[in-house]
Amino acid sequence: MPKHCSFCGRTENTNVEILEGVEATICRECALASLETFDESTEDIILQPNAVLKPHQIKEQLDKYVIGQEDAKKILSVAVYNHYKRIHSKSKVDIQKTNVMMLGETGSGKTYLMQTLAKILNVPLVIVDATSLTEAGYVGEDVESILEKLLKKANNDIERAQKGIVYIDEIDKLANQTKDGRKSTKDISGEGVQQALLKMIEDSEVTIGLGESMMSKRKVLLQTKNILFVCGGAFVGIQDLVKNRLTPQKSMNIGFQSTIHKIEPTVEYDKEISQQDIIEFGFIPEFVGRIPVIATLNPLTKEDLSQILVKPKNSIIKQYQALFRMDGVKLTFHQSAIEYIVEEAFKKKVGARGLRGVIERKMNELMFELPKQSDIKSYVITKETLTNPFHL
């Protein structure tokens, strides 16, 4: 007599494997689903006030959510560990801050890394776009508005805000790019903002408004000494600057003519980016000097995108499965569907951001129709489901 799964009722056959227990049986899919449920219920390690996770513990937590980028995760883990250890220690030595510069193409995970890190550390995080910042007196946001947002994220708790994280995205757009024919940037949103950020990033006391209404705002003093600043950007073209710096030149003189031959070394230029290259890119030395740590993120491969789709604790697929589970439907993604989503996202060349764009567009009809069908308890998404007109 064929065995039946005690959970879903499916019968054992060549496609359904059944494991028999003392008083019940379970199929492979139900066993995996149960394991996933138990795994999701496990609480993450959340850093308590005045406690400091070791670098390997920080990275272990990041690994649950962020696929790949091993070097960047290690660099960030060490930098964050040193930063908060410095805050909580009582050393007589004045240890300087370890602000971080992250370089990586669009969709490589810079912002997501910072969001995950802030969650692990249990500190307020504010994310600002550098392109919206201007010098004081011009239309736009001045740099002091960053700290106002941080204080708001900390629920107006000044002490907590003073140990928060500020992530300035698109920082490369502030470069004064006037060399090699690159387009020049106006001073009010380029070098001028770099100058305005200098003191804030290192150590200063900034007076900001506390309160929702302009009329009821009161002035408070915020100390930036223990705020970790992380800047991120794509820095398109910086690899060429690294290449020119690292490529030795050999001069061959023949008569009155001199020919220069470049001997190209075998190096990964992304891993050789230095503060000197960032200055050459268009940043003032004083600004770069305040951000000593450089973390470079790698471009995402198709394999990376495939793992991002299914592996992290809050992967896109797991989010959809949770949504359908609320309607009593068990949703499964066939490998053909995963490969199709990855292929379409890879074509867009926007990294992990492309995954959600593809799956949202393709799943919309299913999300509209499936909740109508109360008799459907499970559904398998295949490539055909995503490429053909939807039919139940």
Task: Set out the fold topology.
Blueprint: E1 18-20, E2 25-27, H1 28-41, H2 55-63, H3 70-88, E3 100-103, H4 110-121, E4 125-129, H5 144-153, H6 158-161, E5 165-169, H7 191-202, E6 205-210, E7 218-223, E8 228-233, H8 238-246, E9 249-254, E10 257-262, H9 275-281, H10 285-289, E11 293-296, H11 302-310, H12 316-325, E12 330-333, H13 335-348, H14 353-369, E13 378-381, H15 383-387
Parallel strand pairs: 3-8, 3-11, 4-5, 5-8, 12-13
Antiparallel strand pairs: 1-2, 6-7, 9-10
The mean pLDDT is: 81
Fraction of residues in helix? 25-40%
* Tally of individual domains: 3
Q: Any idea what the CATH architecture of the largest domain is?
A: 3-Layer(aba) Sandwich
Shape: elongated
Number of H- or I-type helical stretches: 15
What topology, given as strand order, has the largest sheet? Answer: 4-5-8-3-11
- What is the beta-strand fraction? 15-25%
Give me the strand/helix succession: EEHHHEHEHHEHEEEHEEHHEHHEHHEH
* Topology-level CATH name of the largest domain: Rossmann fold
Structural class: alpha/beta
Our Rg estimate from Cα atoms comes to: 26 Å
Q: In angstroms, what separates the terminal alpha carbons?
A: 33 Å
- The count of DSSP E runs of length 2 or more, i.e. the number of strands, is 13
**Weakly predicted, low-confidence segments:** 40-49, 179-188
- Name the CATH homologous superfamily of the largest domain: P-loop containing nucleotide triphosphate hydrolases
Question: Major β-sheet, in short?
Answer: 5 strands, parallel
Q: What is the highest CATH level, the class of the largest domain?
A: Alpha Beta
